[in-house]
Amino acid sequence: MEKGKTKLSKKKAYYSSKLKRATHLLFYKRHKKPGVKGWELRKALGPDYPNVLKIVDDYLKTLDLQVKTIFEEERTIEKPSLEQLDKARFYVTLRGELTPKETKMVGWRIDDLAGLAITISHIISKKGKTSRKEVEGLLRDKLPGWKVGLNIDRYVRYGYLAQDENGQLYLDWRTRAEVDQNALIDLLLGADAEAV
Fold first, then answer.
1. The pTM is what?
2. What does the pLDDT read at residue 40?
3. Mean pLDDT, the chain cut into blocks of 10 residues (196 residues total)
4. Alpha helix (H) ranges present in 46-195?
C-alpha cells in the first residue's frame, strides 16, 4: 500500500512542476507575440504537453480563462496531430465575455471597439482579406475621419489585423485568439434582423 502512495505522490510532483512551467510559459511574454508555440512547450515539458495544457485549462476555468490554440492555417482543426500542435500557438484568453463595465477598463473607447468589430466583420464577409482603402471608406461613415487611419494602424499594431505591402488587410493572430468570429457574425445577423 505504501509503495502505491509513493508512486502516486511522485506522479503528482512530476505533473505539478510541469503545470507551473506551462503556466509560466503561457503567461510571460518572451517574443513579439504573446503566448507560446507548441514546439517550445514540447521542448520544456516533453511530448505529453497537450495533456498538461488540458490540466492547466481545467484550473483556469474557475478564473473564467482558457488555453486557446491557434493554428497557422487560420482554421480550427478537430483532432490535431502532435506535428500540427507543435506549429500552433497557445494563448490564455477569456473564456466568457467582458461586462460593459469591464470593457471600459480595457482602455479602448466604445467607438474604437465598434470600429474594430466593423473591420473584422467586413474582412470576414470578404473571405479573409480586403483593401485598406475599402475599410477606411467604410469606417469614415461611422467614425470621425481623423480617427480612421489611426484606428486601423492601432488594430494592426495590436495584432488584430495584418497588412501586406499591397495594402490588403487580413485577420491576424489576436483576432483568431480573442474573437469568436461565428458569435460576432451571429450577433450582427441578429441585430440586422431586429432592425428590419
1. 0.72
2. 93
3. 58 78 82 84 92 92 90 75 89 82 76 90 91 93 88 92 93 85 80 54
4. 49-61, 82-87, 100-105, 110-125, 132-140, 145-157, 173-178, 181-195
Under 8 Å between Cβ of 74 and 128: yes
Give the whole-angstrom CA distance, residue 65 versus residue 48: 22
Instruction: State the first-to-last Cα distance of the chain, in angstroms, to the nearest integer.
Output: 70
DSSP string computed for 31-45: SSSSSEEHHHHHHHH
Q: What is the CATH number of domain 101-195?
A: 1.10.10.10
Sheet order of strands, 89-94 included: 36-37, 89-94, 65-70
**Which CATH code for domain 2-96?**
3.90.1150
Looking at the chain, how many residues does it have? 196
Grouping H, G, I as helix, E, B as strand and the rest as coil, residue 131 is strand
Q: For the chain, which residues make up each domain, given as ranges?
A: 2-96, 101-195
Please give the DSSP secondary-structure letter assigned to residue 78: S
> Taking Cα atoms as reference points, which of 182, 143, 178 lies closest to residue 158?
178
Do residues 65 and 91 lie in contact, with contact meaning Cβ atoms separated by under 8 Å? no
